[in-house]
Design a protein that fits this description.
α1 runs antiparallel to α5 and α3 (about 50-55) packs across α4. The chain has helices at about 5-25, 30-40, 50-55, 60-70, 95-115, 120-135; strands spanning about 45, 75-80, 85-90. The two termini are about 20 Å apart. The protein contains six helices and three strands.
């Protein structure tokens, strides 16, 4: 059924992601790079393995992408003081301006997506979607 809530959520997420990907492409970044930079901005020093789990990508995929970000001077790896086998990831000062620019562009995409909705409607929508996400995040929800 094409008008089910699940279909609408999925199709809306696809269109939103496509719009964001276009914005990122114009700025020379991939979606995975932006998600990585955004996560490390919120949680500096995260282990590479933890980051791969959070981003739901294979560790080797993330490792290669981190290599590219490190080569461009945006990310540095530091040994984990508690585990000699692990690396902690940090953003460098080179990302400061980029993060501000990407956040501004992401807000522009969000404003476009939610045009015509009042702040109250946006707040209600966010609360409803958050509840759906929480339901789906519970382990007992549906066997995947």
């Amino acid at each position: 059924m094409t008008d089910s809530i699940g279909f609408l959520l999925n199709d809306t997420a696809r269109l939103y992601r496509r719009t964001l990907d276009g914005m990122l492409r114009d700025l020379g970044m991939t979606s995975l790079q932006w998600r990585t930079v955004a996560r490390l901005n919120r949680e500096p020093g995260m282990r590479q393995s933890e980051l791969a789990d959070l981003l739901e990508v294979e560790p080797i995929t993330l490792s290669r992408m981190i290599d590219r970000l490190a080569d461009s001077g945006m990310v540095c790896r530091k040994p984990d003081p508690n585990d000699r086998r692990a690396w902690n990831l940090y953003l460098t000062d080179k990302t400061d301006g980029l993060i501000r620019q990407l956040e501004a562009e992401a807000r522009r995409v969000e404003d476009h997506a939610f045009a015509g909705l009042s702040q109250d409607e946006r707040h209600v929508l966010a609360g409803l979607v958050e509840r759906v996400r929480a339901n789906l995040s519970r382990k007992e929800a549906v066997d995947a």
